[in-house]
Amino acid sequence: MRKDFDQKSNKIKCRFVFLDLGSNKGVQVRKVYEPWLYPKTPFLKYFDDYFGPISRTYRRQDVCSFGFEANPRHFTRLKHIEKSYINKGLSVSFENFAVSNRTRDTVTVYSETNFELDWGAGILDTVINNKKNMTKYEVPTMDLAEFIRTSIQPLRPEKVLMKMDIEGSEFIVLPHLHENGLLCYNIITAMAIELHDWAKTSFNFSLTIPSLKGLLQAQACKPTLIMDLDDETYNNDVDVQPDW
Fold first, then answer.
1. Which residues does 26 contact at the CB level (< 8 Å), separation at least 6?
2. pLDDT tens for residues 75-114?
3. Tens-digit pLDDT profile for residues 197-243
4. Could you tell me if residue 156 is left (phi over 0), alpha (psi between -120 and 50 degrees) or otherwise beta?
5. Is the pLDDT of residue 56 over 60?
6. How far apart are the C-alpha atoms of 154 and 148, rounded to whole Å?
7. Distance CA 206, CA 12 (A)
8. Cβ neighbours of residue 149 closer than 8 Å, sequence gap 6 or more
9. Confidence class for position 153, pLDDT limits 50, 70, 90
10. Which of 3, 10, 4, 19 is nearest to 159 (CA)?
11. Alpha-carbon 239 to chain mean position
12. Start and end of every Methyltransferase FkbM domain (predicted)?
């Protein structure tokens, strides 16, 4: 499983890496390679800052994007985007895993049965509106720390930008990354996080963006830059297919 995933990225020199945790419909990855379709998104500034501005000659061919999404309902679309970009010589992979602190386990993922409302699928059913009619999936977990160590660090990218919007699982994953010494600038350059306050009670965790930054400042290494950014623009994507 990991071998196949890695081989896709190794076809191209991964000068930069984008980790999209909670890919949903794949819009954030599309913003990396087709930013002209999403002019109002706040994330574009960070893609320009960390990967360099896109142009007619530079299509960010040296940016390798790895997306993880727990909700299997999105994967027909995600695999279409992946195939379209690979055919253009880009390195993009989407995988159906629940980002976690362990691998080779399974978790129940809850989602809205009404696909029009299916934005907050995750391992908690807290924000599911119709709990009597919600959809459940058994989804394999992926240890993010292990993935970074075994699949990202060997690529030796100059910069790694991460987006984390994993519907409460951040309260499992962030402490795990910290305990493994991975929240360092030379490993994960910058990270945009959405902290879901409604999940704190379930995990008995009181982490905030300021407290996370304070925790990282106490590390021996230069800390990962933490951005409190939840870019929900173009959630339904645009009508243009991933083709240029």
1. 20, 67, 74, 77, 78, 81, 94, 237
2. 999 999 999 999 999 999 999 999 999 998 998 888 876 6
3. 877 777 777 889 999 999 999 999 999 999 988 898 998 888 887 76
4. left
5. yes
6. 9
7. 41
8. 180, 182
9. very high
10. 19
11. 23
12. 52-199
Q: Which residues of 114-138 are buried (b: 16+ CB within 10 A; e: fewer)?
A: eeeebebbbbbbebbeeeeebbebe
- What is the Cα–Cα distance from 230 to 209, expressed in whole angstroms? 13
Residue labelled with tokens 């995750």: 122
Q: Tokens at residue 95, please?
A: 């995988």
Phi, psi for 58 (deg, rounded to 5):
-120, 105
Q: Please provide the size of the chain in residues.
A: 244
Edge to edge, the sheet with strand 135-143 lists 98-100, 135-143, 106-111
Rg (the chain; Cα; Å) = 17
